[in-house]
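Input (Gfo/Idh/MocA family protein):
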Amino acid sequence: MKKLKLAVIGAGARGFLSYMPYVQNHPNEAEIVAVAEPDAKRRDAFTKSFRLNENQVYLSWEQLLEQPKMCDALLICTQDRMHFEPTMQALRKGYHVLLEKPMSADPLECALMTEEATKQGLLLSICHVSRYTPFWRELKSLIANGRIGDVISIQHNENVGYLHYAHSFVRGNWRNSHLSSPMILAKSCHDMDLIRWLVDSECTRVSSFGSLSHFRLENAPPDSAERCTDGCAVESSCPYSAPRFYLQNLEDNPFARLIADPPTVDNRMKAIKTGPYGKCVYRTDNNVVDHQVVNMEFESGATVMFSMCGLTRDINRIVQIMGTKGELRGDLVKGEIDLFEFAGGVRTLVQASTGEGGHQGGDDGIMRQFLSDLREMRYENNLTSAEASLESHLMAFAAEQSRLRGGEVVDMRAFRSMTKPRE
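Output:
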């Protein structure tokens, strides 16, 4: 097995915590030869973990890409609006790239990156990790094997979870579309990708409705404060109390370890008192929607209704897929798929195995596939190639355009033409 050399741009939650465990657990498959990370603590932690020397450590992606080509591929795990430039430069320098989703907050940039990878004959794979989980792969297999006939309609619910939404999309890095990307991209581009994959047909029309309804200043309780620790009169009963949420045991709350480095109790308390994660959820600069629905029609005739809501008990995805010969109902967290076949009224309960690692095994799965694709020189038509991801990204962009224009129907053929790179 050829051992591949990788470098990482962006050693944060995704670049370090999500994808590096696979490399650490499979040292015969890949080795890390460099990292670019502006945050000193993250950079030092990554450097120590992979025993890099000072010549392998860079403060920015620009510094790393100024060097002669040093490895087979780059993992680019920067923030949403910092994907385009490093990806384009990496491709032009001859690197294969694994790029964190979403590709970009600009549809033209998504198209240009896809075009550049094809031009250079390189692999550009997007981190749509859900395609690699046992649950979604089992659903895809049941459809592909004809168990429910042709897909006629899908109802797909993304339950973000009220505390996850408050952490990431009210207080966190993805709270404001001008700083990151709209919710339909930042969170739900996974769902757009899964829908496109399961239907396996070109999307023809999209419409969408949604808004930021709850986490607004006018909904702040009387006698609340700018921060949870500023003597807020309702902090003890507020479901979004930062001290109560972030001072939990780290095993019970995976978000708590993300607000301070290292995540000691004292460091977390300091972050609550001084950083964004201690702000009142009704008093931040957030603007992304807390609920949204998207309606889609496909060339095959299938229709899809997707619903995302941040105000849910669980973090889960639930799906119902109706076909000409049967129906599938799935619960991601339980890993359960309920198959009902009309012929004979046969019901089968399928338990999808739970993969190891983050995203129900998807994080490990995409690393395994990316490295395999590189070894076998499969650079086109991959499961999560840029070509495949571009289509679902355009569906998300069209949905956001529809939402901002009062739910008008967007013709996808015209939309693709408008966002296509000019000669």
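Residues 14 and 77 are 6 Å apart (CA to CA).
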